[in-house]
């Protein structure tokens, strides 16, 4: 439930590879299993989703062997239903032993459940979290101690865990490595969600009702509240729904991730190894989920580094996005950030580790960002192919966020009428809520973060309202079965039908004679030839649930023997087993093996041979204009006013050393930077300082007047000033040979416009430098096509526009962003490669002074992209130029085939940009109805309901006579590319996967590691994106090492450079044998690094 329910509450209450698997991987065996649990919920006037916000949050399930007979039992938690414990009698047959076991928790609202051997007697106990009415009897959380005879005794008070609150789930682990289990309890405040102001530092204020999260340490078998001393937030705003344990920084100590619903951001508690935690989420993650629910932490790509997957409630269909989602405005989002609530977005996130402590979200790239109302995820190898897949339990019994319902109930007159006319008004309102059931989601991991939604094919295609889920090998056949707790329906047992003779596995159950008898927190690493598999022994996973208390790893088809099996115990000891046969369950007791204290499990990944050391990061700073594009163009999904600054390199004062010029921002003059042997300093040009009003773009240092020094073309652009402003007028400044610049007496042969780039080119081979100038766009109306200018130099610095005569293809070329000047046909004449927004990669061949489009000949058709940069070098050393081109990337909600329709659709004199995506043979607007109507208010009467708008394609919204005159842009390529020369044109090769994690704005090619082969440094990111689409922030700068073998060139997978921010240009300079790399960032500090020798 989101904040959009607040107004109603106030009214009511006063405030792929080929597979040979069976056709169906899973079979529903619930009916024959003997399991008949059903978590039935019935709302009343007194207890309902409005009086109790967690009414439809569901309950969990736990799997574990309570009698040590080798068969795992199942325990279900119920909300209004009593809990149930089922004894596994073998062959997937279960018996209800709840009554005799004494674990029903009758008449009280249970939520999460955890199997844990809390007293280290070798028997699994049960801890049940409670919620609901705080005044109900038997309301405290309960701890059922296993008596060893299939009965249990409730002893929560004896152990100090009889907490009363809105508890969700508990996780037990040895946080201080003292040999016993401590406890993190996720529990919420009783305070209503509608009674908060989004102000700073609320999370630091303890809940006066003692309802916040709690942390307990184990002192001789009794648990002591250690929350404050452990630095755990215990406020009343942490509406946590999930606890996830793992080692997030590779120090072998257990850290804690907490998923928070509503407005509060998530928490990441890093274990400080001294008895406390440091909350460090903003240091580790760039983007997080908004309404975070359940999560899991496991290695999805077998690189030895676990990924974090967090679920939210974003629908995966455009129709339901438009009818079920409420998005924050840009201003609200910015306010949240200012008040410390961080970068939260309404989607699932898949956090991939790219550095020592840096994670980036690649959920959109992986195709797992939207899966309906998703309570929790489990990351486990569902088909034993050697890669963990993703299972997501989802469903909400009532569509609490249905936009039409919220609009109806948000009108006080409607609510008052129901209250007046209906005896049970709240029941009536809830009855009016729509209800939609969906199948749970299953994603097949096909490698390289390519996930395929496959629930239907795997037999998981029954619509239901699911909440908690857990996996375990219930029949000991070497694959993982699945148990799902549902709302208002029978819970489900899925048998896994994997052929384990073909798709193999290994199971490892660990024990210890310490207070941590099941060795919770251990890590298992299996080396099998070139393959490595890693698993962690934590049971609290997903949502309100716990999985089997031992590890099962799928190994695929080829593995028959595990070369080395390495166990890292919680206390730092290591056990190593060699040549272990597969398809067995090992029982390993720590004390029965010779253990080592040194780390033998560290996996060596790709070598990080490229190292840089920071030299300066506070010397110069670019200042952004502060323009909010959405105030001008309400329908744009992202801003285009943040594409600068740029860096220019050249010896401006002829002292033998190159200077670097960094563009100025609005009201900020550009500066020349001098990197010396002992210091770095900068200086300004008096002539340029007088023009500080302008926003500079990509200019040029070149010899304009033929006097052998570098003159300066000052390019101006951006979106702040209109084309009629002098701030959009480019100028040339002549150099006196000593670095003093004066404005040229010759004005440029055109008026003011928003320039994107300038490239010197001697297109006519007369010995002087002419210019190619690109127009970016109309700064006040995104969508008008720009043009290019070919300016001919008379040799003295006076330029003439000769575009019509010598380069007519430039006249209506599009919204240019960049170009490369190179002789790509080896005829001795410089040619042009040019890119831009919605533009294909265009090749302009220079035929003895006349440029013409030969893109078709060079196999560049259907390359329309959102290109930002193009760089050239002979990468494969065949004597021909190759190209690297930076694009949007693949980690966004946009996809090839998306369109932008551009026109004055309501004929009021103002142009609109309507972004659309294709479904079937029609195109549908992607913007929210409220945004659409804010720009086109004339549609308010015809689009009364969100469901009506959601069904309208662009051709159903506008008559044909309007659309036929509209400009239609289409993007066909979003991946960043390498164009490698060949005998028949250019081969398109996508850059490595990490280059697709975020938008690339700038590229630098060079041999940075001195091996004679070209490498690549890339940077980018785009933060100014509307919250419903989410910013592009999954790059910290990349180094891609070049590999050349038999004239075949490739880049290795990227290495994180730890340069955060919106990188807009990268430059290289060498000083006295030292190599420096400079990163210019929008509205941020210039960072200078020295390459380590």
What does this structure look like?
With about 1100 residues, the protein is mainly beta. Helices cover about 10% and strands about 35% of the residues. It has 17 helices and 74 strands. Strands 53, 54, 55, 56 and 57 form a five-stranded antiparallel sheet that branches. The protein has a four-stranded antiparallel sheet with strand order 1-30-29-28. Strands 2-3-4-5 form a four-stranded antiparallel sheet. The radius of gyration is 31 Å and the shape is globular. Mean pLDDT is about 95; it is low at about 1-20.
Short description:
The protein has 1093 residues and is mainly beta. Strands 53, 54, 55, 56 and 57 form a five-stranded antiparallel sheet that branches. Strands 1-30-29-28 form a four-stranded antiparallel sheet. Strands 2-3-4-5 form a four-stranded antiparallel sheet.
Secondary structure layout:
Elements: H1 6-13, E1 26-28, H2 30-33, E2 61-64, E3 73-76, E4 84-88, E5 94-96, H3 98-101, E6 109-116, E7 125-131, E8 142-146, E9 152-154, H4 156-159, E10 166-173, E11 182-188, E12 214-219, E13 222-225, E14 240-246, E15 255-260, E16 267-271, E17 277-279, H5 281-284, E18 288-289, E19 295-298, E20 307-310, H6 318-324, H7 330-338, E21 344-345, E22 349-353, E23 359-361, H8 363-366, E24 374-380, E25 389-394, H9 403-410, H10 412-421, H11 425-432, E26 441-445, E27 451-453, E28 466-472, E29 481-486, E30 492-496, E31 504-511, E32 523-528, E33 531-536, E34 540-541, E35 545-546, E36 551-556, E37 561-568, E38 574-581, E39 585-589, E40 612-616, E41 647-650, E42 659-662, E43 671-675, E44 680-683, H12 686-689, E45 700-702, E46 711-714, E47 731-735, E48 741-743, E49 754-761, E50 770-777, E51 788-793, E52 799-801, H13 803-806, E53 815-822, E54 831-839, E55 842-846, E56 851-853, E57 865-866, E58 869-873, E59 882-886, E60 899-903, E61 912-919, E62 922-925, H14 929-935, H15 946-950, H16 954-957, H17 960-963, E63 967-970, ...
Parallel strand pairs: 18-21, 31-39
Antiparallel strand pairs: 1-30, 2-3, 3-4, 4-5, 6-7, 7-8, 8-9, 10-11, 11-12, 12-13, 14-15, 15-16, 16-17, 19-20, 20-22, 22-23, 24-25, 25-26, 26-27, 28-29, 29-30, 31-36, 32-33, 32-37, 34-35, 37-38, 40-74, 41-42, 42-43, 43-44, 45-46, 46-47, 47-48, 49-50, 50-51, 51-52, 53-54, 54-55, 54-57, 55-56, ...
Helix pairs in contact: 10-11
């Amino acid at each position: 439930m989101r904040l959009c329910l607040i107004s109603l509450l106030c009214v009511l209450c006063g405030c792929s590879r080929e597979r040979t698997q069976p056709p169906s991987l899973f079979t529903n065996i619930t009916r024959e299993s003997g399991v008949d649990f059903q978590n039935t919920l019935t709302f009343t006037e007194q207890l309902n989703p409005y009086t109790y916000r967690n009414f439809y949050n569901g309950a969990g399930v736990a799997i574990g062997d309570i009698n040590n007979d080798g068969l795992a039992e199942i325990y279900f938690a119920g909300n209004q239903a009593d809990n149930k414990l089922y004894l596994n009698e073998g062959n997937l047959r279960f018996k209800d032993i709840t009554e005799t076991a004494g674990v029903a928790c009758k008449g009280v609202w249970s939520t999460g459940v955890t199997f844990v051997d809390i007293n280290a007697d070798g028997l699994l106990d049960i801890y049940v979290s409670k919620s609901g009415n705080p005044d109900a009897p038997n309301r405290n959380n309960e701890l059922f101690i296993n008596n060893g005879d299939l009965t249990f005794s409730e002893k929560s008070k004896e152990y100090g865990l009889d907490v009363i609150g809105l508890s969700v789930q508990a996780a037990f682990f040895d946080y201080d490595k003292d040999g016993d289990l401590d406890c993190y309890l996720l529990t919420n405040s009783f305070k209503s969600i509608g009674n908060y102001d989004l102000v700073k530092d609320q999370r630091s204020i303890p809940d006066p009702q003692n309802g916040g999260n709690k942390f307990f340490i184990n002192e001789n078998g009794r648990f002591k509240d250690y929350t404050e001393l452990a630095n755990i937030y215990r406020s009343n705003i942490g509406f946590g729904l999930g606890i996830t344990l793992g080692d997030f920084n590779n120090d072998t100590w257990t850290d804690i991730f907490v998923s928070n619903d509503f407005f509060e951001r998530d928490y990441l508690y890093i274990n400080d190894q001294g008895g406390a935690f440091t909350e460090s989420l903003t240091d580790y993650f760039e983007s997080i989920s908004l309404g975070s629910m359940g999560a899991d932490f496991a290695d999805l790509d077998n690189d030895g580094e676990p990924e974090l997957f967090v679920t939210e409630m974003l629908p995966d269909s455009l129709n339901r996005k438009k009818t079920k989602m409420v998005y924050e405005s840009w201003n609200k989002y910015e306010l949240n950030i200012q008040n410390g609530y961080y970068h939260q977005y309404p989607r699932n996130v898949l956090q991939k580790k790219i550095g020592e402590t840096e994670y980036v979200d690649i959920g959109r790239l992986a195709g797992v960002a939207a899966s309906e109302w998703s309570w929790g995820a489990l990351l486990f190898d569902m088909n034993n192919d050697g890669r963990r897949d993703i299972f997501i339990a989802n469903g909400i019994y009532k569509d609490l966020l249905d936009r039409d319902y919220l609009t109806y109930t948000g009108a006080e007159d409607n609510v008052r009428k129901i209250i007046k006319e209906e005896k049970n008004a709240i029941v009536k309102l809830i009855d009016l809520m729509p209800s939609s059931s969906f199948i749970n989601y299953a994603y097949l991991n096909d490698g390289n973060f390519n996930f395929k939604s496959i629930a239907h094919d795997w037999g998981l295609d029954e619509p239901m309202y699911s909440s908690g889920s857990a996996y375990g090998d219930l029949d000991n056949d070497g694959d993982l079965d699945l148990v799902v707790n549902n709302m208002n329906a029978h819970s489900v047992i899925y048998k896994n039908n994997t052929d384990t003779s073909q798709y193999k596995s290994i199971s490892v159950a660990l024990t210890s004679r310490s207070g941590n008898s099941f060795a919770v927190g251990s890590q298992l690493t299996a080396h099998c030839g070139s393959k490595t598999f890693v698993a962690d022994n934590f049971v609290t996973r997903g949502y309100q649930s716990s999985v089997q208390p031992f590890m099962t790893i799928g190994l695929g088809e080829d593995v028959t023997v595990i070369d080395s099996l390495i166990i890292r115990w919680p206390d730092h000891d290591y056990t190593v087993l060699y040549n272990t046969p597969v398809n067995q369950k090992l029982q390993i007791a720590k004390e029965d093996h010779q253990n080592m204290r040194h780390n033998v499990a560290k996996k060596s990944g790709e070598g990080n041979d490229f190292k840089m050391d920071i030299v300066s990061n506070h010397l110069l700073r670019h200042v952004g204009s502060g323009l909010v594009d959405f105030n001008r163009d309400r329908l744009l999904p992202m801003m285009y006013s943040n594409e600068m600054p740029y860096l220019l390199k050249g010896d401006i004062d002829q002292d033998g050393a190159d200077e670097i010029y960094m563009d100025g921002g609005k009201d900020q003059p550009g500066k020349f930077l001098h990197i010396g042997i002992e210091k770095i300093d900068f200086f300004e040009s008096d002539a340029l300082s007088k023009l500080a009003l302008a926003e500079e773009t990509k200019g040029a240092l070149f010899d304009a007047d033929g006097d052998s020094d570098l003159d300066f073309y000052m390019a101006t652009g951006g979106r702040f000033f209109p084309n009629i402003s002098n701030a959009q007028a480019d100028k040339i400044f002549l150099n006196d040979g000593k670095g003093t610049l004066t404005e040229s007496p010759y004005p440029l042969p055109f008026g003011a416009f928003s320039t994107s780039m300038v490239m010197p080119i001697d297109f006519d081979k007369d010995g002087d430098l002419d210019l190619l100038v690109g127009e970016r766009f109309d700064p006040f109306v995104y969508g008008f096509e720009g043009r290019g200018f070919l300016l001919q130099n008379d040799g003295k610095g006076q330029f003439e526009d000769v575009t019509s005569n010598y380069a007519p293809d430039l006249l209506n070329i599009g919204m240019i962003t960049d170009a490369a000047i190179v002789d790509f046909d080896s005829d001795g004449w410089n040619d042009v490669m040019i890119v831009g927004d919605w533009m294909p990669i265009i090749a302009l061949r220079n035929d003895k002074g006349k440029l013409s489009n030969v893109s078709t000949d060079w196999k560049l058709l259907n390359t329309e992209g959102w290109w930002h940069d193009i760089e050239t070098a002979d990468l494969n050393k065949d004597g021909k130029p190759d190209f690297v081109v930076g694009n949007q990337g693949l980690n966004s909600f946009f996809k090839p085939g998306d369109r932008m329709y551009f026109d004055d659709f309501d004929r009021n004199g103002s142009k609109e940009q309507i972004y659309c995506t294709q479904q079937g043979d029609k195109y549908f607007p992607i913007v929210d109805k409220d945004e659409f109507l804010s720009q086109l208010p004339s549609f308010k009467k015809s689009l009364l309901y969100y469901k009506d708008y959601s069904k309208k394609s662009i051709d159903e919204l506008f008559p044909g006579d309007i659309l036929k005159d509209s400009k239609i842009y289409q993007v066909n390529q979003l991946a960043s590319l390498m164009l490698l020369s060949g005998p028949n044109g250019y081969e398109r090769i996508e850059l490595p996967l990490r280059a697709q994690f975020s938008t690339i704005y700038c590229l630098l090619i060079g041999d940075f590691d001195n091996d004679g082969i070209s490498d690549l440094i890339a940077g980018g990111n785009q933060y100014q994106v509307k919250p419903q689409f989410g910013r592009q922030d999954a790059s910290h700068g990349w180094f891609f090492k070049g590999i050349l073998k038999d004239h075949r060139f490739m880049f290795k997978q990227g290495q994180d450079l730890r340069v955060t921010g919106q990188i807009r240009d990268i430059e290289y300079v060498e000083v006295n044998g030292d190599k420096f790399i400079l990163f210019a960032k929008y509205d941020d500090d210039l960072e200078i690094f020295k390459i380590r020798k």
